[in-house]
Design brief:
single chain, mainly alpha
Length: 439
């Protein structure tokens, strides 16, 4: 059922965002716990883990927030316009996309993974750790894609609680299994990869049964009737958002390559720093998933004014929360750096990252919330331009500054990129662009 439009915007956002936010932070917390376990295997293992991080983040971002956002947006707009049959038909189209994308990830990593990690600066034991971890991790890519797509179907229908319940069980279980395999077997990082893949097996079965039984408020048809127009409704948002996710992770890959010139400790520290940075995405995604649904339903009704209003309300909430976290880590960098490594060199580099990049988390929070809102509105050109701006500043600006100030210069480029990303996305949420016709 569509959300109650008589509630204040912030209450509607909070009510829908809370379950997804809890899941997102549970996921992030589990992955940070995994970093802690990996840190006990040594600096080389931590560096190998950091090399795989951009691909793992890409998998999560494309399946959950990018193509998943396209699925949620298409279903929300269909329900907002009073077309439940169309929403039901979209489910099978979303599944076809999920299976295809999952298999693509597995193929790319298994065939080209070693060459990619080597190009990113992996050598010797670091490279072997990365290849072992990635091979097991991405063997389960299709399961991860199907799970996250089914969750997107439910979120698009306004049912945030059901996928949240399932994932609140899965992520802690996955983290515990990863810790057991990392610390009690000789699998090394391969154990963490295996745990990640196994975590999605049960989630697929439970969530698939829930949707087929009507948990989204409608039941998918027993037979798949492929329609190009319905693929188009998902891909018109999801394809652009997926390309943006590739750009965001290309940004991480290239900055990692710049940082690699500073040594193994620098790579490990940047992996830790990026994990903390990407913890802002779960926070923004909780609010953003609610915005995708609420904005999509408002647009389906033709109420663009309400769509813009709810988008800005969510952006202020997200920016305030992310900014608060960023301020905390920048004020207490020593405390956070000591959590993840006992290596003094890694700690020093991590402190530098937190002090320089932490204050820009507010810009990331605003930008990410409005990015998800833009998915609901079907207005993705300016968010795409913002992604290119971030890439240019982080890589081009970071490289130029690193030639003058070393690692600190690279981190300054990252900080400026996050802040400007938020400004550009925010510029797009205006009546002249968010309306019945783009002008």
């Amino acid at each position: 059922m569509p959300p109650d439009t008589t509630e204040p915007d912030w209450k509607r956002i909070f009510r829908l965002a809370l379950p997804t936010t809890l899941v997102a932070f549970t996921q992030a917390g589990g992955q940070m716990l995994e970093v802690w376990f990996v840190g006990h295997l040594g600096t080389e293992a931590l560096a190998g883990y950091a090399l795989v991080l951009p691909l793992l983040l890409l998998l999560q971002m494309t399946s959950t927030g990018a193509m998943g956002g396209g699925v949620s947006s298409a279903i929300a707009r269909a329900l907002g316009a009073g077309r439940p049959k169309e929403a039901a038909d979209l489910v099978w189209h979303a599944m076809v996309i999920a299976v295809g994308m999952g298999l693509l990830y597995t193929f790319v990593v298994e065939v080209f993974g070693r060459a990619l990690f080597s190009a990113m600066g992996g050598r010797g034991a670091v490279l072997e750790h990365a290849v072992s971890y990635a091979s097991w991790l991405f063997a389960g890519s299709t399961l991860a894609w199907i799970t996250n797509t089914l969750a997107a179907v439910l979120r698009g229908a306004g049912n945030m609680r059901l996928p949240a319940r399932i994932m609140l069980v899965m992520w802690p279980a996955q983290a515990l299994l990863s810790g057991v395999l990392l610390t009690t077997t000789n699998m090394g990082l391969a154990g963490a990869g295996l745990a990640y893949s196994l975590g999605f097996v049960a989630a697929v079965g439970v969530m698939g049964y829930a949707i087929y039984s009507g948990g989204a408020g409608f039941k998918p048809a027993a037979r798949f009737d492929p329609q190009g127009a319905l693929f188009g409704k998902i891909l018109s948002v999801g394809a652009i958002a997926t390309l943006m996710a590739f750009i965001a992770n290309l940004n991480t890959v290239l900055v990692t390559r710049i940082i690699a010139d500073e040594g193994i400790a620098a790579i490990a520290a940047y992996g830790i720093g990026v994990r903390l940075e990407f913890m802002m995405i779960p926070l923004a995604f909780g609010i953003g998933a609610a915005l995708t649904t609420l904005v999509g339903m408002a647009v389906g009704r033709g109420d663009w004014k309400a769509a813009r209003r709810v988008a800005w309300t969510g952006a202020l909430m997200s920016g305030g929360l992310a900014g608060g976290v960023g301020l905390m880590v920048s004020l207490f960098p020593t405390f956070f750096s000591r959590i993840f490594s006992a290596d003094p060199a890694v700690q020093a580099a991590t402190r530098l990252y937190l002090v320089i990049v932490g204050p820009s988390f507010a810009g990331l929070g605003v930008g990410m919330a409005l990015y998800f809102a833009s998915q609901g509105a079907g207005r993705m050109r300016i968010p795409f331009a913002a992604a290119l701006t971030r890439l240019t500043l982080a890589v081009g600006g970071g490289w130029w500054l690193s030639t003058r100030y070393g690692m600190a210069g690279a981190f300054m480029g990252v900080s400026a990129a996050l802040f400007c990303y938020g400004l550009v996305v925010a510029w797009g949420v205006r009546p002249g662009y968010w309306g019945p016709k783009e002008r």
